[in-house]
Amino acid sequence: MKKLHQYLGTLFLMFCLFFLPNKGFAQNAAKVFGKVLDDSGVTVPGANVSIKETGKSTVTNENGEYAFSNIEAGTYTIIATNVGYKTFEKKIALKEGESLEVNLLLEGESQSLKEVVVTGSSAPRSKLESSVAITTMGAKAIEDRAPSSTAALLQTIPGFVVEASGGEIGNNLFARGIPSAGAYEYVQIQEDGLPVFEDGALQFANADTFYRLDETVNKMEAVRGGSASIFANNAPGGIINFISKTGQNEFKGRAKFTTSDYGMFRTDLNLSGALIQDKLFFNVGGFYRADNGVRNTGFTANKGGQIKGNITYKFDDDDYLRVNFKHLDDRNAFYLPIPLKSNNGKVEGIPGFNPNYGTLTSVNFSHLNVPQYGGGTFSADLEDGSHPIINSIGAEFKKKISDKVTFKNSFKNTNIDLNYNAIFPNGGPWTQDGYATTVQNTTASNLTYSYVDNGQKLDPNALIMRADLWHIDKKMNNFANNFSFSFDLDPVKLTAGYYYSNWKSNQYWNWNSYLVGVSDNPRLLNVKDNTTGVDHTWNGIERITWLERDAQTKGLLNDIYADAEIKATDNLTFNAGLRYNKDKYSGYRDNARFFAENLGILDNNTADDAVTTVKGNPYTYWRYDVSEWSYTAAGNYKFSDKMASYVRYSHGFRSPIEESFYDNAADLSKLQNTEVNQFELGYKYASSFFSVNANLFHMGLKNVAFTDILSDGSSENKFADVNNIGLEVETNARYSIVKLNFTFTVQKPEYDNFTGTNADGSTFDFNGNTARRIPKFFCNLRPEVDITKDLTAYVQFSYYDKKFTNQDNRQVLPAYKEVGAGLNYTYNNLRFAVDASNLFNEIGLTEGDPRQTTSAASDVFMARPILGRAFRFSVAINF
């Protein structure tokens, strides 16, 4: 009933505003409308469009659209301008009562300045006039980069360290050196200006799990730092906004087929057009994909798809009502650390395990059935992988109330059923001697190891390890609404708004340990003590339900914000923003009895001796309130139409994450919001063949939480301060048939106030250490060559400096490079492409094993490498 009231309230507000008096117009007056496009076919928001003879002018909306009504019949000159583009003029002739569509093409004068920002801003503006660090990519640029996942696309953005080694989903992003347990903890992923889910760092529910790139995407905009805390929650590191395609009068379609050397079958389709000319438009598309995965699991690793779309009704001028929807049903394998060895500092695979294509995830133990405390059986299917089923529906409404005031409202309701199953390494690799003495407290000669499937004895020199099947079931929902009023009070543009979000995440965990031989596609092992006759495994399962969890987290956000853009002179612009968060978080957690129950149903077997259960224990209920201000101020000075500079200070925060609430539910007094203070100095320059966007930044963070789940089921539950100073640079150059894109980041993230006592009573002092999993230098270099007008080749080179697995800086992840390449050919309305990633099969380590820091086999360690070499082939047709 509460949700129904929310829907009705929003729709009632739209209804009232729709019937506000509109400007009158003559019955036989003409109308002209259309889109402004760049020379890549991407729409240009924020472009100035005017009709010379009438004095009328407007600015294109976020979809690059413009419209003029109430125009008398006659001949006119329509003009389109934008910073970084050549002025475009076109003669048009209007008849009485005619509705004429005119699309305007702007030719870019530079590679950089034609990019326009609408994310993290109250009004569309070009990069030259904005005072934020931003990277944008249109649909064509995204396709040219051929990303294998959302995370792979984000790797091209300076300042963002992205770990894309987990596969298509579940990857990690670290913004400007902010260390975390992973996910998207300090960055918000948005879809058309609203979050894909309010919190992008819930346990095992990384934000990219709920978003897929396909042909419905029109543009990606990524803001780093700056104004992000004013326009999004828990996002001091930045906002990544994916903007969807919308319809137009002309019917258009695009179909694409992709295959690969790892068994991919993928079809994409997008259709758009008008249901009623000039008034009602649609865009609908989606994909279906099945493949075996780059790493060999022995089953179909990725399978599913999505359908999404929108319907837009346009009123006079720029007013519109848009309804959008999405259904995603997709499952993906999630890859985790694998055993490797170091040979004089060089990382190599161990015998029987391919470091580029091997994984502990195996068809040989894909189905789990184990008895439970209190009776019954728990079952899980590894082949289901990380499997979100998402249904979302929302709407946008924009209305110009007067010449000075514009109202906009958008809402979205999202329901997610996430069934998560993945293999996590948890102990080992051990030699058989090491396992006997370390785990079973006996001698190796007393134990017999045999394969479950055929009873064959294990090679005495083979390594063994635990491969846990972690099952997590999450039921999630989120209703978000954002409305704002914009006031054009020349020279001030003011936006004031109210953001409401109500979300909930219920989760259940059941984790079980397999014992396996260390190899590609590993097999289950049984272990028997010959002296006592006791079995230490049951069908290869060494520990039944060693961890069980039942918990809930809820968020209720009521936030107000304001943003002002002040044009002091033609060259000097000031920006100031303010946000007040009045948020409430609540929930409950179990009080599980860890390793406390003996099921007593397996005779002479230890697999059921130490079961963890939540049954029979009360729950701990908790509540945490947040009252925080975020603010920012900036100034941008335009030296010329080719050069500008800005300075910005911002203060934002991040609320405690889900794991922190669970760990400290009995006493939340130790929890604090992470405070983030940033100072930025930006410089932008562009000529007809070269552009540069450089950002010097300093970040000071207070009370950063570290909450990795350890191999015993506990959390790190530590807090520290972090300071980082860095430089982000993005350059583009073009000469004749050659284009070059080069981005790099150099930074120095270090811990401060990071001392304390470990669980075993030992002390630690990490002050001055480098933040974990953050390289001090990384870069991307991408040259492209137009071999002919229709044939283009590219090479993508990435380099990541060394980094550290943990806070103690003892375990080093070596520097690595990755090379990709591709070729695409266009023939009329067809596009053929071949794209390759990791051409030289580099073993690049993105993380160690954050759940374990030691290994009984001294030359063997656990880490997660980037995916091995892969080729994808595609053909697309526009119609």
From TrEMBL:
Membrane topology: Multi-pass membrane protein
Domain TonB-dependent receptor-like beta-barrel span(s) in chain numbering: 370-839
Signal peptide: 1-26
Primary location recorded for the protein, binned into one broad class: membrane
Domain TonB-dependent receptor plug per the UniProt entry, residue ranges: 127-239
PROSITE patterns, per database record: TONB_DEPENDENT_REC_3 (PS52016)
Keyword vocabulary terms for this entry: Cell outer membrane, Ion transport, Iron, Iron transport, Membrane, Receptor, Signal, TonB box, Transmembrane, Transmembrane beta strand, Transport
Keyword Transmembrane: yes
Keyword Ribosomal protein: no
Superkingdom to which the source organism belongs: Bacteria
InterPro entries according to UniProt: Beta-barrel_TonB, Beta-barrel_TonB_sf, CarboxyPept-like_regulatory, Plug_dom, Plug_dom_sf, TonB-dep_rcpt-like
Pfam families per record: CarbopepD_reg_2, Plug, TonB_dep_Rec_b-barrel
Intracellular or extracellular location(s): Cell outer membrane
Family classification: Belongs to the TonB-dependent receptor family.
Protein name per UniProt: TonB-dependent receptor
Organism: Flavobacterium hibernum
